[in-house]
Amino acid sequence: MRVFRGFHQPALSATVLTLGNFDGMHRGHRALLARLLEKGGALAATAAVVTFEPHPREFFTPDCAPARLSTLREKLEAFSEAGVDAVYVTPFSAAFAAQPAEAFVENLLCRRLKARHVIVGDDFRFGAERLGDFAYLQAAGRALGFGVEAVPTVTLLGERVSSSAVRTALAAGELAKAADFLGRPYAIAGQVVHGQKLGRQLGFATANIRIRHNPLPMQGVFVVAASGVNERSFFGVANLGLRPTLNPDGACATRPLLEVHLLDFSGNLYGAHLNIAFLHKLRDEMTFSHLDALKTRIAADVRAARDFLAASS
After folding, report:
1. Whole-number Å distance between alpha carbons of 143 and 110
2. 111/19 same-domain check
3. In the listed set 111, 136, 156, which residue is the last one of a domain according to the structure?
């Protein structure tokens, strides 16, 4: 898969395109990508995705932007796994947002990307003030010689599958529901870095994982499955959040951390890139008056995690 930053290099051949944020890569996104690959194969064209960085709502309303479900790296990995040929990462800026729908279609889709067919979700909008819609895109396609189709909304449990629905389920601790919408457990990936090594002192060594999901889609203590450990997977207990006991003054409020204690594992993980899948929420984050109380609670969390895993096996 080839990745392009912007549209400085025109497409070398005809493309079948889809456009969107693809945050979380849920079942609806996967249905759209499946259709993209099918159509690309039928037309012998490059199956290409245009995605935006940052998320448009992060650009327009940074103080109340939705929690990120996936980083750019995670999105690109998902596109590659799906079989996409090319991804155009579009820097979302004031100039990009201000271009009229007509210029978006003629300059971007036709001239730069050589669109032969465009596939979008049924709620897709584009151009200045989001005036471009599916009907506009269809009319433009007829005039300029490219096909247009919309992939219908995917529903599950009587609810529309969307990134917003996934965020709502995660925030409510409904990890099974979020997994249904995603088609897999929600996961965060990152590199293991050095921390305070307090977990080791408490008897529960943890892997501290650098993450870029801020604000977080959820917080608390979870049963997890970690992959990327010596080509194996391990179950564990993870704290995702701000560690209020160790940061009572909120000093790390802007730097959330993912700490994972792997069950039945010993070894050095520094520098490893782990994928942490969240299976079950045990509790919210708590503030403890002293470290002995924290140690006691971690031990209880480990027992609860083992009980959950035994009941699920």
Report:
1. 11
2. yes
3. 156
Tokens matching residue 90:
């579009």
Question: What's the CATH code of the domain at 190?
Answer: 2.40.30.30
- Among 156, 171, 203, give the residue marking a domain's end: 156
9 plus 91 within the same structural domain: yes
Digit-coded pLDDT (tens) for 75-123: 999 999 999 999 999 888 888 888 999 999 999 999 999 999 999 988 8
Compute the residue count for the chain. Answer: 313
**Model pTM score:** 0.90
Q: Which residues are 232's β-sheet partners?
A: 229
What are the distances in angstroms from CA 49 to CA 13, 79, 235?
14, 8, 34
Residues 147 and 210 in one domain: no
Domain identity same for 109 and 243:
no
Residue carrying the six token digits 């596939």: 119
More confident residue, 127 or 164: 164
Residue 1's nearest CA partner among 51, 43, 42, 35 is 51
Is the CB of residue 121 less than 8 Å from the CB of residue 20? Answer: yes
Number of domains in the chain: 2
Quick check: bond before 54 cis, omega within 30?
yes
User: Domain residues for 15?
Assistant: 2-156
User: Which residues touch 147 (CB under 8 Å, ≥6 apart)?
Assistant: 116, 117, 118, 141
Task: Give yes or no for residue 245 having a pLDDT over 60.
Answer: no
Question: 305 — phi, psi (to 5°)?
Answer: -65, -45
